[in-house]
Amino acid sequence: MIATFQSPGATLELGFITLRWYGLLIAAAVLIGIWLSQRLARRRQINPDLIADLSIWLVVTAIPAARLYYVAFHWGFYQNHLDQVVQIWKGGIAIHGAILGGLLAMAIFTYVQRLSFWQVADVVAPSLILGQAIGRWGNFFNSEAFGAPTDLPWKLYIPPSQRPPG
């Protein structure tokens, strides 16, 4: 089995399996975030198993919400390509939607579990921030989320195929 890395498209191919860097980094961020939130929960006398349960709610809600938010703000394209609305592997999620979906899921979860929303938010917030930082590496591997062209020595090279017109 030969592993190859391809930059534009940011994939890692292991034989017949294709892994996308962005997906790997999101998965890593989720796992690290759960670990961190469970540690913080223990310190605040919150059952860490509840954080594991909450994480399922968050992931199941945040990923579709991130996609829906992206699609809503790019509706001009998707209204004519409805078949691509669910094709998340082609790109297009927004952290704003994930946060909104996660807040909704957490509000329902804490209500059902009779927990303080604000105490749980305090435990989960550092993981959200860390996850956002880890996710930025996905932007790096995808050659996206960059600024204006520069000649500075610490510039980031963006392949011409990844640059917007103009």
Could you explain the architecture of this structure?
The structure is a single chain. Helix content is about 60%, strand content about 5%. It starts with a strand and ends in a 25-residue tail after the last helix. It has a domain at about 25-140. It has helices at about 20-45, 50-75, 75-80, 95-115, 115-140, and strands at about 5, 10-15, 15-20. By secondary structure, it is mainly alpha-helical. A hairpin with a 2-residue loop joins strand 2 and strand 3.
Comma- or semicolon-separated keywords:
166 residues; mainly alpha; 3-stranded antiparallel beta sheet; 5 helices; disordered N terminus
**Radius of gyration based on Cα positions:** 18 Å
Count of discrete alpha- or pi-helical segments spanning 4 or more residues: 5
Roughly how much helix do the residues carry, as a percent range? 55-70%
Q: What fraction strand?
A: 5-15%
Mean pLDDT: 87
Work out the number of β strands.
3
End-to-end C-alpha gap: 41 Å
State the shape. Answer: globular
Structural class based on helices, strands and sheet pairing:
mainly alpha
Low-pLDDT residue spans? 1-8
Strand order across the largest sheet: 1-2-3
Sheet with the most strands? 3 strands, antiparallel
The sequence of SSEs as H and E is EEEHHHHH
Question: Brief overview, please?
Answer:
It is built from five helices and three strands.
Produce the secondary structure layout:
Blueprint: E1 3-6, E2 11-14, E3 17-20, H1 21-43, H2 48-73, H3 75-78, H4 95-113, H5 117-141
Antiparallel strand pairs: 1-2, 2-3
Helix pairs in contact: 1-2, 1-5, 2-4, 4-5
